[in-house]
Every structure is written in structure tokens, then in C-alpha cells.
């Protein structure tokens, strides 16, 4: 028996129920983990609210990320053994492999041995953000030394991961944030420059920072009206990677800017990397190297205990954090 979080209906954080359930032995291709920490993601809030790509089958588990100690391994599993400290690269099913709980069975091919002495909280906060940012910036945009990359929703865990990955390859990360309250923290987190969109003209500021050339790469999960200004801030031949739709307002299509500057606008999903064995291997190597060297280190905004999973969700929804929200078990 183990305590597992499930939902029996869609709704606010109150629908999260902590229940005692049997956890079966791992299947042949699974690893069972005694969970020590869980990284929270906005996708889980959206899933709980019935605003996600995947439908729930009630009662439903949820959760993408976890770190802990291997409890047991399936008969076909190699590469890890009981007692190893590991983390989970988030699978493609938020419910089937739901990580909110004390003990979970997960796909063996997505289990990664954690670097020596990496705290469980950091291990649980690493893989969603770094795989998401790596896939967009390195695998698809081919970010390289000297490139300027605009990062919106900059205080999110993925935004902060983008700063660190950009700096690893010698690129210049520029954070775009709505208010000045987070500007200093973003600079301390690795942004080379911060643009406060409520006070500054995005296009004018980017052009000033780039000597009129514009940014080659834009990494945006928001969409909405600001989309037009982002494209106008781009260099000829640049690429914009759209990985979310946080704005509730319509997103304009800036036809003449796209044509005139030969821009590439690319919809991007984390699943593109996880579903591609070779790409995921490249991501794993890059991220493990970064974690081992210290170039990549998750920024944790706040931790909660599993007993306070509802409070953790409410805090995440308040949008005041800079970095990752983590639940300890």
C-alpha cells in the first residue's frame, strides 16, 4: 500500500485526493521508484482543470516528474538496480504513469541515474524543463554562439532552463516579462537582458540590443497579441518556436512580417523529443553533462510536502513563482 494522489472529477485544487492504494510489482519493462520528490508542471493543473490535450479516465492519477530510489525492476530491465538514485524523464501519458504518490511504476527507458549527490528536489525538477528547452533551442533552432534568443514567460521553469542552455552554447538569452517585479531575479537567474513589456516597447528594445539586426530565435509559450511584436523583433531568416497558448486572446498572423523577413514559425511539443529515440539520447547526454558540470541547475521556487499537494497546486496557479514548484515525499 502507498499513498497516491488521484482525481475523481475535474475542478480546482480541492479535487486532488490523497488515497491509500495497492501498487503492483513493476511490469517487465518498468522500474518501481520509491518517490522522494515530485516536480510540478502547469500541464498537471491544466489536466486537473479539463484544459489539457489528454482526457482523464476517472479516477485518474496525474503527474509527469519524480525522483527517488529504485525499489524494484522488471525482468527485462537493465542499466539500473535496486537502491539507485534516479529521476524520470516525463513520459507521454500524464495519467498512465502518474507520479503523484509515494511509490510509482514507470517506463524503464525513461529512467535516468541521477548525478552523484544531486538532491532529489533538483533531480525531480530537471527533466521536463531541460528536455523541453533543449529540444526547441538546440535540436530545432540550432542555437549557437552569439545568437540572441528571446524568452517569454521567462520566470517559468522552462524559461529559466532556456537561459542556462543558451549560456552553455554561448548564446545571449533575453527575458521578456510583463512587470518589473521579477526583472532583477531574472538577471540573477541568467538572463543577459530583461525587457519589461508593460513599460518598454519590445521591438525598439530588441533592435537596440542587437544593433538593428533582431533576434534569430524566439521561444514563446504565450501567443496572443504580443505575437506580432515578437515577429517584428526577429532577424531575417529567424525561427520562432511556439510551445504553448497561455494567452486567452486570439493570436494574429503577421503575414507581411513573416514574408518580408523569411521567418520560420514552428509549433513545438515536448513529445517530439521524447518520442524520438535518437533525439532523446542527444538530449540526455547534453543535460547530464550540464548537470554534472553545474552549468545546468534547476531553480526551485518553493517546496511543499505531499500532504499539502493542494496548496502546491494553488501556489503554482498564482503565477508568483520564479522557478520550479516541488513536492517532497
List the helices and strands and how they pair.
Elements: E1 2-7, E2 17-21, E3 30-39, H1 42-48, E4 60-61, E5 67-73, E6 85-88, E7 103-107, E8 111-113, H2 120-124, H3 127-140, E9 148-151, H4 157-168, E10 172-177, H5 183-188, E11 193-196, H6 202-209, E12 215-220, H7 226-232, E13 234-242, H8 255-261, E14 264-267, H9 271-274, H10 277-293, E15 300-305, H11 309-317, E16 324-328
Parallel strand pairs: 9-10, 9-12, 10-11, 12-13, 13-14, 15-16
Antiparallel strand pairs: 1-2, 1-4, 3-5, 3-7, 3-16, 5-6, 6-8
Report what the structure shows.
The protein is an alpha/beta fold. It folds into two domains: 156 residues, Medium-chain alcohol dehydrogenases, catalytic domain (Quinone Oxidoreductase, Chain A, domain 1), CATH 3.90.180.10; 143 residues, Rossmann fold (3-Layer(aba) Sandwich). It is built from eleven helices and 16 strands. Strand 15, helix 11 and strand 16 form a beta-alpha-beta unit. Helix 3 packs across helix 10. The chain is globular. The model has no long low-confidence stretch (mean pLDDT 96).
Short summary:
The chain is globular. It has helices at 42-48, 120-124, 127-140, 157-168, 183-188, 202-209, 226-232, 255-261, 271-274, 277-293, 309-317, and strands at 2-7, 17-21, 30-39, 60-61, 67-73, 85-88, 103-107, 111-113, 148-151, 172-177, 193-196, 215-220, 234-242, 264-267, 300-305, 324-328.
- Tally of contiguous helical segments: 11
Order of helices and strands: EEEHEEEEEHHEHEHEHEHEHEHHEHE
How many whole angstroms does the radius of gyration measure? Answer: 20 Å
Low-confidence stretches: none
What is the straight-line distance between the termini?
Answer: 15 Å
Instruction: Report the biggest beta sheet as strand number plus sense, adding barrel if it closes.
Output: 7 strands, mixed
Under CATH, the homologous superfamily of the largest domain reads: Medium-chain alcohol dehydrogenases, catalytic domain
Give the total of domains. Answer: 2
CATH architectural type of the largest domain: Alpha-Beta Complex
Number of strands: 16
Helix fraction, binned, reads: 25-40%
Could you tell me the CATH topology label of the largest domain: Quinone Oxidoreductase, Chain A, domain 1
Q: What structural class do you assign from the helix and strand content?
A: alpha/beta
- Determine the strand fraction and express it as a percent band: 25-35%
* Coarse shape: globular
CATH class of the largest domain: Alpha Beta
How confident overall, as mean pLDDT?
96
Amino acid at each position: 500500500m502507498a499513498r497516491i494522489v488521484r482525481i475523481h472529477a475535474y475542478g480546482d485544487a480541492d479535487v486532488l485526493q490523497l488515497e491509500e492504494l495497492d501498487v503492483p510489482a513493476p511490469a517487465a519493462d518498468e522500474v518501481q521508484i520509491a518517490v522522494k520528490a515530485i516536480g510540478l508542471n502547469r500541464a498537471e493543473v491544466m489536466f486537473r482543470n479539463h484544459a489539457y490535450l489528454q482526457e482523464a479516465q476517472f479516477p485518474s492519477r496525474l503527474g509527469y516528474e519524480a525522483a527517488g530510489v529504485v525499489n524494484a525492476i522488471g525482468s527485462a530491465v537493465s542499466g539500473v538496480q535496486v537502491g539507485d538514485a534516479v529521476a524520470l524523464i516525463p513520459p507521454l501519458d500524464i495519467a498512465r504513469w502518474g507520479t503523484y504518490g509515494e511509490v510509482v511504476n514507470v517506463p524503464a527507458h525513461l529512467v535516468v541515474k541521477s548525478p552523484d549527490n544531486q538532491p532529489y528536489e533538483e533531480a525531480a525538477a530537471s527533466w521536463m524543463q531541460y528536455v523541453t528547452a533543449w529540444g526547441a533551442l538546440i535540436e530545432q533552432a540550432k542555437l549557437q554562439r552569439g545568437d540572441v534568443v528571446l524568452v517569454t514567460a521567462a520566470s517559468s521553469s522552462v524559461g529559466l532552463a532556456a537561459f542556462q542552455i543558451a549560456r552553455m552554447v554561448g548564446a545571449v538569452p533575453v527575458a521578456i516579462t510583463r512587470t518589473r517585479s521579477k526583472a532583477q531575479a531574472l538577471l540573477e537567474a541568467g538572463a543577459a537582458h530583461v525587457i519589461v513589456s508593460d513599460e518598454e516597447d519590445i521591438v525598439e528594445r530588441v533592435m537596440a540590443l542587437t544593433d538593428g539586426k533582431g533576434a534569430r530565435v524566439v521561444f514563446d509559450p504565450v501567443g496572443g497579441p504580443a505575437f506580432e511584436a515578437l515577429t517584428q523583433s526577429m532577424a531575417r531568416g529567424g525561427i520562432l518556436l511556439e510551445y504553448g497558448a497561455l494567452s486567452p486572446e486570439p493570436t494574429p498572423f503577421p503575414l507581411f512580417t513573416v514574408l518580408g523577413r523569411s521567418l520560420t514559425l514552428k509549433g513545438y511539443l515536448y513529445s517530439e523529443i521524447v518520442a524520438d529515440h535518437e533525439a532523446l539520447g542527444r538530449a540526455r547526454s547534453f543535460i547530464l553533462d550540464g548537470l554534472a558540470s553545474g552549468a545546468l541547475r534547476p531553480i526551485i521556487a518553493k517546496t511543499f510536502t505531499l500532504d499539502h499537494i493542494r496548496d502546491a497546486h494553488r501556489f503554482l496557479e498564482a503565477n508568483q513563482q520564479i522557478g520550479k514548484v516541488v513536492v517532497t515525499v
